[in-house]
Amino acid sequence: MFSPDEGYVLTGQGASQKGGHGKLVFLRRSDLSVEKEAEMDTTPVKMVWHSKINQIVTGLANGAVSVLYSPLTSINGAKLLLAKGAPKRPTVEDLSDALAAPAILTPHSLPMFRDGDGIVKGTKRKREKDRMDPRKSRRPELPVTGPGKGGRVGASATQHIVQNLVRDTTRDEDVSVLCRICHVMRHSFRSHGFHDG
Questions:
Q1: What is the pTM of this model?
Q2: Are strands 22-28 and 34-40 parallel, antiparallel or unpaired?
Q3: Does the pLDDT value for residue 118 go beyond 50?
């Protein structure tokens, strides 16, 4: 792969032994001499050199992603994460503030004095009521019976539409053929002197 200014060629070099380290090798385009080598944890599989932010993103054989950047010429990208700094660790003061004002649990207090944010187990009746509510219990929708309701079409309406789209006309043809046969037989009986009564 070429660098954005096409002055360098970037290539990956696999690990020489199993579990070994791979390399990213930067070669000069003019004479293909090695300019720089960057060691990777494993074999580099896929590389992308983003021209706008001047960063190289490398996918490795173990599934990890490595980002190479220049602290001077790269913009945004991985540098945004570094600007935030390390995550703040909780201090003794933070923990002591949490312990200084513990929550007071009063399970038998009147409902008007209870805190809604405390750990309160629901009563059996409330659980049963919530179980009957299809949204709270996450119950799947039941199939619709009868005509469509709520924007959904039931199976019977769908079957009716499908049956009317492709009608079986062979039955109608059989009836018309039988009618013609009966008409011809009736006409022949009358012509021979027989009467149907």
A1: 0.42
A2: antiparallel
A3: no
